[in-house]
Amino acid sequence: MMEKILTISIAAYNAELDIKRCLDSFISTNVLEELELIVVNDGSKDNTLNVAKQYEKKYPGIIKVIDKKNGGHGSTINASIKEATGKYYKIVDSDDWIDPEELEKLVFWLRNNDADLVLTPYKCVNADKIEDFELIYPYDAMMEIKKITNIEKKSNIIVYMHSTTFKKEVIKRMGPIIDENCFYVDLEYTIFPLYYIKNFVCLDYIVYQYLLGTDEQSMNIKNMIKRRNQHLKVVTRIINYYSDKKRTLKEPVQEIILNRIHSAILSQYKIYANMEPKESIAEVKKFDMWLKQFPELYTGAQGRFMKIIYLNRATRFMFYAPIIRILKIMHLEPKI
């Protein structure tokens, strides 16, 4: 049996309509024997398990199914980390897929090189019009492609879940510590391993195809409002993690983590802003008061909407409700 170069963790919950497209995108590659596809059935109530089992039977030694009770995305990551045997580890959601030719390029590079963190661009695909897409790059134009860089060197990179591929040893050292029964844990998954990496590389292979615009998606604003306390739980944990580890982190790593934390903080304020002001005012004030104990985070998030937050801090949120109402009337609610 060939050495497994890349383990793919696929979280599947009620995914019988999507999982075939996801798995078929891997099966059509020329590097299938070098892949380990771990499908974690997270207590699905539909036919997901049977579909995944059929693929497991057809592709033994390549596809492995873990069947467990429902525990959320974090629990599927934790479960697959324990089982992963590939040289590298990557997450792909069951409603997303990969570009086979781009994956082949990535696997070839992973087979012949060593870097703790591999960053690749990804494609955001519109669910309503599949030919509409946007490319997201986790690095700026100044980064040198295919050059392995020491993590202590200052660089402009962003660790999006869809862009990251970690060395298995890094993930194993982190361990199965992702929060369970909680959405938005991709923030934890991309931040926690950074404590253990020594270098990274930027590649230009557009591997991940990320589906956007479905009603079920966790990033749908209605779902984010409904699950805002889960988002807050994750924001709280990554802030506490950074606070605990800061003194042992090199400055460039601190900056990478701060970038993600500032974005998460901004998203939390935006979630509140998309609610009715009378419902959100107490929550936003409580969050703002808690955040104040971390000065560099309290004033670190930027953007046009944060200027509204900074203004409200100066007035003790006296004008928060009328400002949010005006934004709603003008259909200018902040997008996440």
From TrEMBL:
It holds the Pfam family Glycos_transf_2. Gene3D superfamilies: Spore Coat Polysaccharide Biosynthesis Protein SpsA, Chain A (3.90.550.10). SUPFAM superfamilies: Nucleotide-diphospho-sugar transferases (SSF53448). InterPro entries: Glyco_trans_2-like, Nucleotide-diphossugar_trans. It comes from the Bacteria. It is an enzyme of class 2 (transferase). Its EC number is 2.4.-.-. Residues 8-173 form the Glycosyltransferase 2-like domain. The keyword Iron-sulfur does not apply. This is Glycosyltransferase, group 2 family protein. It comes from Blautia obeum ATCC 29174.
